[in-house]
Design brief:
There is one protein chain. By secondary structure, this protein is an all-alpha fold. It has one domain (2-60). It has 2 helices and no strands. α1 (2-34) packs antiparallel against α2 (38-60).
Length: 75
């Protein structure tokens, strides 16, 4: 039964990290709208791309997408 706590804690950490990543993604999109300089807008765009990739790997790391996960398609 103690292993259930480890799974619960792992899920809570991933959920918290995903929520923070989505919030940072939202803020990067908002910054991109407000910024004036081309260089700063490019940096905001790359931040959005990086955060989307991070969020994708959070989801994929749990084996939700079986064709991309590292478990080799074993259920």
């Amino acid at each position: 039964m103690s292993i259930d706590y480890a799974d619960l804690a792992s899920g809570a950490v991933i959920l918290a990290a995903s929520v923070l990543t989505v919030f940072a993604l939202y803020r990067a999109v908002e910054f991109r709208r407000v910024l004036v300089g081309h260089v700063y807008k490019d940096r905001a765009n790359w931040t959005v791309v990086f955060l989307l990739a991070t969020l994708f790997f959070f989801i994929d790391g749990q084996g939700v997408l079986p064709y991309l996960s590292s478990d080799g398609g074993v259920p």
